[in-house]
Amino acid sequence: MDLFSLIVLSIGIFAGFYVQTAMGFAGSLMALPILLLKFQLPEAIAYISLFYVFSSIFLIYREWVFIDKKTILDLSITSIVGVVLGVLVLSYSKPVFLKKMLGAFILAYVLYSLLGKRESNLGNTSILGLGILAGFFSGIFSTGGPLYIICVENRIKEINTIRATMIGILGLVTLTRIPTLALSGILNFEQCKYAAIIFPIFLSAQFLGRKTFKKSGKAHYKKSILFLLMLSGLSLLF
Asked: Which of 29, 41, 166, 236 places its Cα 20 to 30 Å from the Cα of 100?
């Protein structure tokens, strides 16, 4: 790997997992547009998935007491089905089309967030359907977080529990995604080697993200994230 590729990888992983630690989700939405400056989509997904393993182990250990285990159990089977389908599409689809699809997905999420989340009461069938769709996006883009959070917020209202449960769900998805990526040939040993090289940068993102969650004004912080996501989505589309 050349120096520029290593720099892009470092910046993308830092940005993504800083946001992931602070918010409990959206790490891939931040990391992917940066990594796609240099890497093809399947390779970028492989790197993000590797670091999701490290992040999940650390964060689930720290947040275990706040996690709503029943919600994770209800979404587990549908998520696994969705992840497998997503990885299969990732293996056989055209990267240019997938990049534009990702851009449209990011912009749709930003629009949804800016319009404001209305109070809704999704039934179990709707939540399970969203679970499959969220798993699919997690498998294809590693970006199922926005759909998962719709499910979680329908059941949970306390912000610490929402964030912790999101961390738990994404940890479950990662455990499914890693072996599926390896079996499909997308994830390989060389990627593990370069992930080890930039591991200290990942640790610094985790540390600063947790500090931000504790100290920042959450409303202002969310607006900043949405602005960055909007720029990312536009860059992928155009």
From this structure: 166
Contact 79, 135 (CB under 8 A): yes
For the chain, the domain total comes to 1
- Residue 145: give the domain boundaries: 3-237
Q: What distance in Å separates the CA atoms of residue 81 and residue 88, rounded to the nearest whole number? A: 11
Confidence tier at 222 by pLDDT (50, 70, 90): low
Residue 56 to residue 169: CA distance in whole angstroms: 9
Q: Quick check: 26 and 17 in contact, CB under 8 A?
A: no
Kindly state the helix (H) or strand (E) to which residue 67 belongs, with its residue range.
none
Distant-in-sequence, close-in-space partners of 15: CB < 8 Å, separation ≥ 6? 30, 31, 34, 205
**What burial letters (b/e) apply to 84-123, b meaning 16+ CB within 10 Å?**
bbbbeebbeeeeeebbebbbebbbebbeebeeeeeeeeee
Q: Helices (DSSP H) in the chain: which residue ranges?
A: 3-23, 27-35, 41-63, 69-92, 95-115, 124-140, 145-155, 159-184, 189-197, 199-215, 218-237
Q: What is the pLDDT of residues 168-213, one digit of tens each?
A: 888 888 888 888 888 888 899 999 999 999 999 999 999 998 888 7
> Identity (one letter) of the amino acid at 156?
I
Tokens of 21: 């630690």
Reduce the DSSP state of residue 36 to 3 states and report it: coil
CA dihedral 12, 17, 22, 28 (to 10 degrees): 70
Q: Is the pLDDT of residue 99 over 60?
A: yes
